[in-house]
Write a structure and sequence with these properties.
The chain has about 375 residues and is α/β, with parallel strands linked by helices. The protein has 2 domains: about 130 residues, Aspartate Aminotransferase, domain 1 (Alpha-Beta Complex); about 240 residues, 3-Layer(aba) Sandwich (Aspartate Aminotransferase, domain 2), CATH 3.40.640.10. The protein contains 14 helices and 13 strands. α7 links the parallel β6 and β7. The structure holds 4'-deoxy-4'-aminopyridoxal-5'-phosphate (PMP).
Length: about 375
């Protein structure tokens, strides 16, 4: 089996699963309980928070646990909008955000907020000049992702940060879900950012766990009302085993991060250089510094993305159409559309997404299969 769909989700790592199991069995108390089982679970929770904060260069009190990227994005965007609605109702985002951002914005529009969706250039990057021009006196939030999940474009977060230095009252949110652990911290962990979103299952932690960064002194309106966990910000009994497992997964992710990112880039380079030799292929992910090392989006022109995915699947190779979240609905890729890609080309797009466990021999095998599949469809077309 070759698993090249790591941007959709990753396989849980063995030792991470072990941490989850041990924590479930031995630290099963409710962290809010007063007895010693509760205290033991509370200590595990807070140690995990401390460890995650240290690995990310955050402070422990800036880390809040969520159920994943979707909740993090919903909470930060709605929580900011509700908190700051008296000061303004204008929000800036981009046309290539994940559905958990775009659909949150749509809900806010229905509640009377005004959202500007910045366009992107033909490589899938937001232009800083467009952002500057979009800022209004009533702008309360800018929400831009660090790495696009469909083509891997890295957005100009630090440059946007410098623009927003002049607008201290505007909150700045960055969805870092696809950027974490790819040796890109200096491209998006910028001091001007007020909120980040992260999701555990993208880095070998269990599903249904994630965390947000909320800069010291910042506040969100809670979306989950209840028992007041997470300092009253996000109620619900903490998922201590998954949190401890995520802390371990993050430590493994951060270990040798640079080398692992270079390995992924090597595999990406092999694939792109090969694709460049084929006829009737479009490649949307480039080999330059403005693209992440793990995502390669391309087409075999004239063949639908689903057909390509299933043809690889028949050979026990797993890739996806551009984004797992919209693929079942058969929706055209929103990112490729925003990049002004012709519809008949966009519907042929597929995404290969790598992780640090993928090897050169897997990529060689993938390329061999790609050639056969490409030739097969060339004859048919
Ligand atoms: N943001 C981005 C950029 C993503 O790629 C994803 C996952 N596809 C999410 C948010 C949502 O994360 P989760 O699956 O943890 O809800």
């Amino acid at each position: 089996m070759i698993y090249f769909d790591n941007s959709a989700t990753t396989k849980i790592e063995d030792s991470v699963l072990n941490t989850y199991n041990v924590a479930s069995q031995q630290y099963f108390g409710n962290p809010s309980s007063l007895h010693k089982l509760g205290l033991k679970a509370y200590e595990l929770l807070e140690t995990s928070r401390k460890n995650i904060a240290k690995l990310m260069n955050f402070k422990p009190h800036e880390v809040f646990f969520t159920s994943g990227g979707t909740e993090g994005n919903n909470w930060i965007i709605k929580g900011t909008a509700f908190k700051k609605r008296e000061f303004g109702k204008h929000i800036i985002t981009s046309a290539v955000e994940h559905p958990s951002v775009i659909n949150t914005m749509t809900q806010l529009e229905q509640l009377g907020f005004d959202v500007t969706y910045l366009p992107v250039d033909k490589t899938g990057h937001v232009r800083v000049e467009d952002l500057k021009n979009a800022i209004r006196p009533d702008t309360i939030l800018v929400s831009i992702m660090a790495v696009n999940n469909e083509v891997g474009s890295i957005q100009p977060i630090t440059q946007i940060g410098r623009v927003l230095d002049d607008y201290p009252s505007i909150s700045f949110h960055v969805d870092g879900t696809q950027a974490i652990g790819k040796d890109l911290d200096d491209r998006f962990i910028d001091p001007r950012v007020d909120y980040f979103t992260f999701s555990g299952h993208k880095f070998h932690a269990p599903r249904g766990i994630g965390f947000i960064y909320m800069k010291s002194g910042k506040q969100l309106e809670p979306l989950m009302a209840g028992g007041g966990q997470e300092k009253g910000q996000r109620s619900g009994t903490e998922n201590t085993p998954a949190i401890a497992a995520m802390a371990r997964a993050l430590r493994l992710l951060k270990d040798n991060e640079k080398v692992k990112a270079q390995e992924m880039l090597k595999l990406k380079t092999m694939l792109i250089q090969h694709l460049e030799k084929l006829d009737n292929v479009h490649i949307f992910s480039k080999l330059d510094d403005d693209f992440a090392p793990h995502i390669i989006c391309f087409t075999l022109d004239g063949v639908r993305g689903e057909t390509i995915v299933h043809t690889f699947e028949d050979r026990d190779i797993y890739i996806s159409t551009t984004s797992a979240c919209s693929s079942k609905k058969g929706l055209e890729s929103s990112t490729l559309k925003a990049m002004n890609t012709q519809e008949n080309i966009a519907t042929s797009a597929v995404r290969v997404s790598l992780d640090e466990n993928n090897t050169e021999s897997e990529m060689k095998e993938f390329i061999k299969n790609l050639d056969e599949i490409h030739d097969h469809f060339q004859i048919l077309n």
